[in-house]
Structures are given as C-alpha cells and as structure tokens.
Amino acid sequence: MSKVKTGKYSNFRERNRKSQGYLLKKLLMDYGLAFCRFLLLFGMCFLILQPILNKISVSFMSEPDLYNPVVISIPENFTTENYKLAAELMRYKETLVNSLIVSLTIAVLQITVCTLVGYGFARFKFPFKKFWFSCVMLVILIPPQTISSSLHLHFRYFDVLGLFKLIKGETINLRGSALPYYLMSAGCMGLKNGLYIYMIRQFFRNIPKELEEAAYVDGCGMLKTFIKIMLPEAKPILTSCFLFSFVWQWTDGFYSKMFLGNTKLLSTSLARLSDSLGAYIQRITGSATTVAVAYNNCIIATGTLMIVMPLIILYLFAQRGFVESLSSTGIKM
Amino acid sequence: MKKQKNKTAGLQKRQAIAGYLFISPFIVGFLVFMIKPFFQSLYMSFCDVQIGAGSFNPVWQGLTNYVKAFRVDPDFTRLLVEEIARMAVYSLAIMVFSFFVSLILNQKFKGRALVRAIFFLPVILSSGVIIGLETDNALMASLEASIEQTTSGISVTAALENILRTAGIGTRAYEEVFELIDNIYDVAVASGIQIIIFLSGLQTIPQSMYEAADIEGCTKWESLWKITFPMISSLFLVNWIYTIVDFCMRSDNEVIDKISEIMVQQINYGLGSAMAWVYFVIVMVIIGISSLIISKGVYYYE
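The joint structure predicted for all components is written out below.
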C-alpha cells in the first residue's frame, strides 16, 4: 500500500503537503543536527590535531622565522637543520634502535606473562581466587611512585635471600642495568600490567566454555588446550594489549628513568634534550649562554615529532588493532 | 560411588594446581616487587634512611618525616591541595566530556572511523614524557600571552566572563568552568580510553529498547536519561577509577615531581616515602568514597 502512495506523491513538495509540513521539518532537523555535529566534531578534531600540525610547521622553520611575526605556520626559510641537530643531540640512531629493542622485548614479555595470568583467572577454579584477583586490582590502583623509593633501594642493594652476600661479601648494584625491569615485567609488575591482566581476563571470560570442554573430552591437556584452542581465539585482545604495551613503553619516562638509566632510550633523551641543547650551544660558542626560549622549544618540538613519528606510522597501520578490539572486550565491573 | 567422588576431587585438584601454575608469575611478582617494597617504603617513611657504602640502614624516628612534610617543606602542602583540587575538577570534566563525545561517536555518519581514530590518537601520542614536555612549553605560553594582549577581549570566554562578572553571579563557580573551557585541550587529550570504554558500553544496549520507548512516545532526550544513562552507569564507575588513577600517574603531576626530586636529588628517602604515602592515602580515600557513592547509583541490568 505504501508503495502505491509513494508512487502517487513522488514529488517531495506534494508529499510534504500531505504530511502537513512534517516531512520538511524532519528533513531540516536532520540536516541541522548533522551540521551541528560536523561543526562540533571538526572543532574537537582540530583541537586534538593542532599541536601536532603546529609542531610539524615549527620543526621546518629556521631560527629567524621563529621571531618573525609575519610567519605563522608556513616557514619562510624552509630548513631541515632542526632535524639534523635534534637527531645529533638525541643520538637518534642509537636511541631508536635501543628503544625498539627494549620496547619490543618488554612488550612481548609482559603480554606473555599477562596472558598466562589472565587465562588463569578467567578459567580455573582455585582457592583464594577472589583474594588474588583483588591483589590485581590493588596493583592497578597503587601508583608506582609510592613504592619507587623502596624499589630504588631494593635494586641498589639487590640480594636473593642473602645469597650474594654470603658468596661475594657484598650485595650487587642492579641500578642502571636493564635486568630489574625485565624481572619486574616477568612478575607482572611493569607499566600498567594490572590493566592488561584485567582486560585479557575479561576477554577470556567471554569465550564460550564449550570450546574448552570439547578439547578436554578429546583428551587435550590443559596447556595444550590453552595454546592450541584459546590463544588463537584471543588474538584481537592480545594484539591490542601488545600495541598498548609497546606504545606506552616507548614514551614512558618513569620506569625508564628509574631502571634503564644506562640504556639510552628515546624517551629519556627527549626529556634531557633541552639540557643537552644548552651544553651543545655552550660548546660551540665557548661561553655560557642561555638558549633562547623559542629556539629551545623549536628543537624540543622537532625531537617530539621524531619520537612520535614511528608511533604514528604504527597507528596508521594498526588502528583497528587499537580501537576495535578494545571496544569488543565489553569491559564491565 | 566413592570412586566417582574421588575422580571429581581429582579434577578439582588438577584445576586448582593448573590455576595456581598459570597465575604463579603474578604471585611471585606481587610478593617480591609489590608487597615487600610496599611495606618497606611504609617503614622507611617513619625512619631516617642513611645511605652507606654497600648497604643502607633506616633509623626509627617516629613521625618526624610526616611533620617535616607538612610543616617544614615550603611547597608540599600547597602542591598537594592544588593537585587534588585539579584532579577533582578535571576528572569530573573528563567524565562529562567523554560521555557526550561517545554519544556523538555512537551515531552513524560519514567519516566516523576517522573521527574515532583522531579521538583515540592522544592515548598514543600524549603519554609518558611527551605530556610533561607539552605543559611547560614556555613558547606557547608567551605566545598566548602576547596574543591575548594584542586582541584584548576578543576571546569568547573572556568576553562572556566579563559579562557574567558584571552580572555578579557566583564568581568562583564559573571561574572553574571557564578555566576548564580554556583548557579543553587537556580534557580532550586525557579522555581517549574513557571514550572507548563508553562506546563499548553503548554498543551493548539492545536497539529494541529504544524502539519500544519510541513507540510509547518517548523523546530522544528522555530516552537518553531513562535508557542510555542507566544502562551504562556501571561504566561510570570503571571510568571514574581509571581517570583518577591515570591522573596520579601522569608525568606532569607536580606532587610526584616533588617526591622524585626529594628522593633523587636530595637523597632523602625517608621524607620522600612519607610524602608518597600521604599522597597515596589521600587518593585511595578519594577513590574509596567516590566509588562508594557512584556504586550506590549504579543500575545493573540482568
């Protein structure tokens, strides 16, 4: 019947008249809403992207451009000197390789361990399970800064049950080496590891139990079931957690400063960039001068861009891995 | 019969053993790298820690460090109050912002994937050291000041603020609001994860509920508060806790800066631990009380 009607009043104006202006009103409302939404989202997207765009334009400016009030976003004297200088100051090649190695190994280690633990919490019944899970919650809640003082000393005078003191007569100093952080990652105490455990557990809980039971009935062991059946199912959440772990490790300042002091990383060298720029200028001019604020910031912006660039490339390719799988976990209390 | 029972007991036992094997890395790590340092730092906060060659020995001195933190140190109390106030205001703003943005992003329109990707970008880019660098960007601050001078009063918020001030309505309240609007960038940058969590909640709401409400003559506005809001109210709790915890761990947190400065530069581990504990306890109390209040209002749909 409706088909007949649309055939009869195919003209929009006629249909509008028949509905006593409702159709036009609705159309206008829809377009108005879409327009408002577009304005709002465009503004907010610009807000988020603007600092990056700003950094990109600043990083190509030569020093006179920074002080030129006419130059706002398009540099007059296009230059790549800033990149060269920042790369030299941060020892970009060395730190990039270091950062890559550390972030990758740490991320792999953390996600492996967190997957095991998350699976254990999701699928097995054992005494004190609630207690241990509340411990996971505690790990999420306790800021690592609270215990950092003690961790400092813990690794400064590292000892396992007094064994080293017995053999060598003194405790060993592990500060500055990367070992403590790998140990901590192996024990699920790295950066935001409680969160990964929580997310992975949540995901495993949503996988139907029948899958596992079928495997058990067919005579598959517990470990084999986990590796052959459950891991392939959990691929999306594992990639997502891996990406997070990698990215947050990449930019992390706290743990890197505390434990990986001797390993030159991108994040720590970026934090020091302003100081090393001062030292560099001093070396060139031969006298102690303060670096101009604008120039300093220009170099820092360049350095930030250089750190972020690998992440942006990663994000472009693995955007789905970040967002979609996270929203499919169905995080709930 | 007995045999049967034994068999199930065996399965349960095997389950328990396997479970403990799976979570054993966590237990070991938790005991060694969390519990021990946790209590050690609590103990150290009551001590004067003397660093010697090859060892350190804490000397018990009671509450001295706490008294020092509050009464002797010039900055600590001020920073603490400021930081907590900032946390409260910003966390609220982040909740409201991420809720409404996720509502918008849940609608269907062209380029939705792109917008989502952009909103999620700060999670990756503004983490760790980078956010600390951005906040003390002196160039931007001086630029902003000069722009404000040359274009005095053109800023929309400033003009509005002037009008409201002459109208004389509760000054303090809207000053906070305007500060938030001026710093909307900080809010937007910090709410990436929260938006995703809300979005995942919104997608689980069955469409049939809205249809039923629509047929009953419910407007969109009403169904927002009567359906959407209660259905994802449990996520408010998750997001609230996440926001506060995230705020504590940001690298531009001034209290944390202060603590690490005292520990690393002044090598005063006792005082540093005391300050860290004060901060930690306050944050935990805030999280506890607020999540109790929120969980009272949470509606569980089963």
